[in-house]
Amino acid sequence: MEITGAQAVMKSLEMLDVDTVFGYPGGAILPAYDPLIEAGFEHVLVRHEQGAIHMAEGYAHATNRVGVCIVTSGPAATNLVTGLTDAMMDSVPVLAITGQVASTAIGSDAFQEADVTGITMPITKHNELVSSAERIPEAIKEAFHVARSGRPGPVLVDIPKDILNATFEWHWDDRVDLPGYKPTVRGHGKMVREALDLIARAERPVIYAGGGLVRARAAVELERFASLLGLPVVTTLMARGVLPDTHELFVGMPGMHGHYVGVRALQETDLLITLGARFDDRVTGQLATFAPEAKVIHVDVDPAEIGKNRPVDVPIVGDVKVVLEQLLTVLEEKQRKGQFEELVPDATAWRAHLDALKAQHPLRVDQPEQGVLKPQSAIRAVYDVWGDEAVYVAGVGQHQMWAAQHIPYTRAGQWINSGGLGTMGFAVPAAIGAKVGVGRDVPVIAIDGDGCFQMTFQEIAAAVQHDIPVVFVVINNGYLGMVRQWQSLFYEDRLSQVALPQDLPDLLKLADAYGIPGFRIDRIEDLHTTLEKARAITDQPVLVECRVDPDEMVFPMVPAGASNDELIESAEEWYARVAEQQA
Q1: Which domain holds residue 536?
Q2: Which end is more exposed in the chain, N or C (fewer Cβ atoms within 10 Å of the end residue's Cβ)?
Q3: Is 466 in the same domain as 338?
Q4: Is 111 considered catalytic here?
Q5: pLDDT attached to residue 322
Q6: Is residue 306 situated within a structural domain?
Q7: For this structure, is 112 an active site residue?
Q8: Domain total in the chain
Q9: Both 356 and 210 in a single domain?
């Protein structure tokens, strides 16, 4: 059967069981948008190409499948750069298909030409400029495989317009043969045994659970392993929910704005059992003083991460789900032989210490009974109303940290955010993509800040046009909140270019302009009743604006570049320290 390259793009995506593509047409990709009419999957028309890549990311986060976006050449392709970098940092499997000027025009500075493969080489796992129509099926199939295997990540296939128009004899082979690409899946048996020996001798062990556990779908294995050995667990920003917050072994979230006990657990431990985490600076603080007494076991599918930031005592390269299965197999064999107790660390006193810290240092919210609404109260109420069944998607900034702190996550994939790159504008399109992925029966709540929201709120039009009922909750404090917090704490309250007037734009009028229900909450008394009204609307997008106290800051906080031992629990504590230093 002879088909065009454009038809081959669509057939290849069908063969890979793609059900949704996010995109925006234009000149170089136009040939592909004709067979798209008959394609066996849905297309969501975005309003900006950055929205397409973030929707693909949200879809991938929510489903653990590859998210797909398709855009044209030049500025459309370069508009994907932020999302591709975001996906690279957070190990999100996405496939971007971009149009390119005709192959005969490449290098001539043709209209809307850009060296997309060159531009995106450092921010993709793999990319390819396709040189023939016959190559299209293999190029897309291989890119898809690379995106979802090993350490997941973004891939890009760039296709010139004349290649899309060329014809060839269609062929498809399900096999993928990439001799130079064979990610290690199973951990080395000797290292697995050494890890268990090290755990058995530990007095203060902690599992440092990272986002790799979510990508590997290893939540069940993590819970079994931690429970079998009685190991306390901290879950990073990217791993929230991989062990339920309600679990007796859950300690907290570590990091710059983590829970007090989560930060202290890593500082005081004598053994870090690091699973799918990368010793990010937001977790470690000043690296030289991080977990000073700890030996380190590090399990990661990406060998480049092991030893990159912290020396490792027991390195295990492999898929974290598979490695946990290997560890469990050894433990269960020891149980059958009556040798299990010798592998269980005596961590009773350690766990009691962590439980005491958790009780002594809860998150604090000073919420008056009437009047001013605190942002933490708004976010807690969102959880009260939508509960465990919902998926929560955040932008970047104060609202992101409050959402990570104050919502008790109970399953992997329930929390979606931009962690490594910290991309403002992520929440609106990512929530739309997530909603497409999870379907109509699962509520998806975008918790955004007024700064983030104004970067990508145009994608509400896509949600309306394609009937994607996301709830958009905007925590509106009238400022670039996190920037203002840093200026207040570290620049003597000299505020520079951080004011965002709360009525610019009027979000209720914005909701009306998009033809969706809009609600405004500015008093604690109205919080739950108004959110319940929003919850009752399930057949279209909803916008809820929470006007909150502009002076509220995120605590706990480890100042950038400082040791985790310098954790601050409140603004009062910070200003007391400053006064003491100045005295």
Answers
A1: 375-552
A2: C
A3: no
A4: yes
A5: 98
A6: yes
A7: yes
A8: 3
A9: yes
- CATH number at 351 reads 3.40.50.1220
- Are 203 and 352 in a shared domain? yes
Q: Considering 161, 321, 358, 435, which one is annotated as catalytic?
A: 161
Task: Please say whether the beta carbons of 157 and 96 come within 8 A.
Answer: yes
pLDDT at 559: 92
Q: Is 99 left (phi over 0), alpha (psi -120 to 50) or beta?
A: beta
What are the tens digits of pLDDT across the range 510-537?
A: 999 999 999 999 999 999 999 999 999 9
Q: Kindly report, residue by residue over 466-491, the tens digit of the pLDDT.
A: 999 999 999 999 999 999 999 999 99
The predicted pLDDT at position 577 comes to 84
DSSP string, 343-371: GS---HHHHHHHHHHHHHS-------SSS
Residue pLDDT, tens place only, 171-197: 999 999 999 899 999 999 999 999 999
Q: What is the DSSP-derived secondary structure letter of residue 421? A: S
Cα torsion at 46, 48, 53, 57 (round to 10°)? -60
Specify whether 158 is located in the same domain as 206: no
> Is 78 domain-assigned?
yes
Report pLDDT for 574: 86
Per DSSP bridges, beta strands 314-317 and 271-275 are unpaired
Measured between its terminal Cα atoms, the distance across the chain in Å is 83
Which of 49, 57, 113, 459 is catalytic? The answer is 49
Q: What is the 3-state secondary structure (H, E, C) of 297-346?
A: EEEECCHHHCCCCCCCCEEEECCHHHHHHHHHHHHHHHHHCCCCHHHCCC
SS3 547: strand
Residues 379 and 480 occupy one common structural domain: yes
| Confidence at residue 487, expressed as pLDDT on a 0 to 100 scale | 95
In tens, the pLDDT along 372-386 reads 999 999 999 999 999
Among 482, 487, 502, 553, which one carries the catalytic annotation? 482
**Which stretches in the chain have pLDDT values below 70?**
none
* Statement to judge: residues 238 and 332 lie in one domain: yes
The question of whether 161 is a catalytic residue gets the answer yes
Examine the domain organization and report whether 356 and 437 are in the same domain: no
Selected catalytic residue, list 111, 121, 532, 572: 111
Tokens linked to 3: 């088909």
Q: Cα dihedral sign for 273, 276, 282, 288?
A: positive
pLDDT of residue 581: 81
Could you tell me the CATH number of the domain that includes residue 470? 3.40.50.970
Residue 202 dihedral angles phi and psi, to the nearest 5°: -75, 150
